[in-house]
Amino acid sequence: MLLRIDDVRRDFGLLWAGQSLSLFGDQFMKLALPLVAVTALDVSPAQAALLPFALFLPFLPLGLPAGAIVDRLPRRTVMLVCDGVQIAAFGAVWGLLATGALTFPLLLGLVLVSGCAVVFFQVAYSSYLPSLIRDRERLHSGNARLALSESVSNTVGPMAAGPLIQALGVAGAVAANVLSFAASVLSLALIRHREPVRQAPARERGWLRRDIVEGLRFVAGHPLLEPIIACGTSYVLFLSMLETSLVLYCRDVLGLSPQWIGVVLGAAAAGHPIGTLASARLVRRFGAPRTLVGAAVVSVAGIVSMPVLGTTVGAAGLVAASILHCVGEGAFNPTSLTLRHTAAPAALLGRVGAVHRFLIWGAVAVGALLSAAATALAGLSAAVWIGALGTALCLPALVRRGVRAAAFGRRGAMSLCDGLPAE
After folding, report:
1. Which CATH superfamily is domain 2-193+212-408 in?
2. CA distances in angstroms from 249 to 177, 229, 236, 241, 258, listed in the order given
3. Does pLDDT of 419 surpass 60?
4. Could you tell me what percent of the chain has a pLDDT over 70?
5. Contact present, 261 and 162 (Cβ < 8 Å)
6. In the predicted model, what is the mean pLDDT of residues 301-309?
7. What are the backbone dihedrals phi and psi of residue 87, each rounded to the nearest 5 degrees, phi first?
8. How many CB atoms lie within 10 A of CB 338?
9. pLDDT digits (tens, 9 = 90+) for 7-36
10. Do the beta carbons of residue 241 and residue 386 sit within 8 Å?
11. Long-range contacts formed by 316-322: CB under 8 A, 24+ apart
12. What tens digit of pLDDT does each residue of 210-231 get?
C-alpha cells in the first residue's frame, strides 16, 4: 500500500512539474503572439485580436466529439500526441519568424492547428487526474496544486516574458514555448501509471452522436453542474473580450512598454494563488456551493473595477482590481473542477469535461471575435468596458437549481462529498 501511494505521488509530481513548465511557456505566448502580429507582421490591433479566436475556434466543431473519442482512448497517450503537435506548430512559427518568411495568414493557420491539439489535450487532461488519484480529499488537493501552478504561471510568466521579449525578441518567446511543450512530453512519458482498460460500447453506426448526446444530457440534467457550467460560459465570454484587448490596451491607451505590460499582467494574477490556497478551507467551512457563489461575486467585482480604476488611477488601479478578480477566480476553479470530478461517473468524465471545454473555450473564441469587432468599431477602451460589465451576467446563471438550493437552503454547508440537494 505504501509503495502504491509513493508511486501515485511520483506520477502526480511528474504531471505537476511538466504541466507547470508548459503553463509557464503559454504565458510567453500570451504576450508574444499579439506583439508578433503588430510588430513583426505590421497588422492592426483588430487583426491581432483574431489570434485568440483562431486558437479557441476548434473547440466549437471539435469540443464535443473530442470528449466521446477521448473516453475510448488512453488519456495519457492523447496528451502525448497533442503535445507533439504543439511542438511542430510553434516550432514552425519560430522557424518562419526567424527566417522572415512568416505571414499573418500562416500564423493564423498554425495557431489554428495548435488550437485543434489544445482541444483534445484539455479534454484528456481535465479527466485524467481521477484515474491517478482515487481519494476525494487528495483529488481536491491535486486539483488545487495544478490550479496553483496555473496561478503562479499567470503571475511569474508575464513578468519573465516581458524582459525575455525585450532581450531576445518575440522569436525567443516562441522558442521558449516550444521547449516547455518538450518538457511536458518528457514528464508524461515518465509517468508509470496506466489507466484501467475501459469497457466502451462497440463502435456501431452512430456511436459518436450517441456518446455526445449522453454527455450533453447528463450535464443538462445535473442540478449542480449545469448552472456552474452556464455561469462559466457567460463569464468567460465577456472576460475573453477584456483579456483579448488588454495587452494592446496597456500599450496603446496606457502607453506601457512590453516589460511593464508583463509586470501589470503578472502582478494582476497574484490573486490566483491566494484564492487557490484558500479554496479547500472555504469548502470545508462553507460548503462547495456557497464557496462557488462567493468566489464568483468577488471575481466579478474585481473585473468590473478594472476599467474604472484603470482610467482613474492608472496601471496601479488596474493591477489592484485584477488581483481582486483573480482571488475569486482562484477559489472558484479548483472547487468547480473537483465537484465535476466527483459528480460525474468515470465512464462519462471525458464527455462531461468536453461539454465544459466546448462551452467555456468556445466562449473564448466568440469573445475574442467580439473583441475584434468592438475594437474595430469603437476602440480598445470600449472592448474592455463591454467585457468587464458583461461578466456580471454569470451571477444569475449560477444561482439557480441545485446551487441555489444548496447555497441558500438548509444544506448550504454541503461538502464536495455529500449527496446532491433535491431541486
Report:
1. MFS general substrate transporter like domains (1.20.1250.20)
2. 24, 29, 19, 12, 12
3. no
4. 85
5. yes
6. 87
7. -60, -45
8. 27
9. 777 888 888 888 877 777 776 777 778 778
10. yes
11. 318/250, 318/254, 318/264, 318/268, 319/264, 319/267, 319/268, 322/267, 322/268, 322/269, 322/271
12. 888 888 899 999 999 999 999 9
Cβ(146)–Cβ(16) below 8 Å = yes
Q: Count other C-beta atoms under 10 Å from residue 46's C-beta.
A: 19
Angle formed at CA 256 by CA 254 and CA 257, multiple of 5 degrees? 160
- For the chain, the domains span 2-193+212-408
Instruction: Determine the residue type at 395.
Output: L
Q: How far apart are CA 119 and CA 238, in angstroms?
A: 21
Q: Which amino acid is at 392?
A: A
C-alpha cell at 234: 457567460
Read off φ and ψ for residue 339, nearest 5 degrees.
-60, -40
Cβ–Cβ under 8 Å, residues 270 and 40: no
Instruction: For 93, list phi and psi in degrees, rounded to 5.
Output: -60, -45
d(CA 293, CA 406): 11
- Residue 228 confidence (pLDDT): 93
- Residues 117-165: tens digit of each pLDDT: 988 888 888 778 777 777 666 776 777 777 777 766 666 666 676 677 7
Q: At which residue does the C-alpha cell 460560459 appear?
A: 233
- Distance, CA of 367 to CA of 239 (rounded, Å): 8
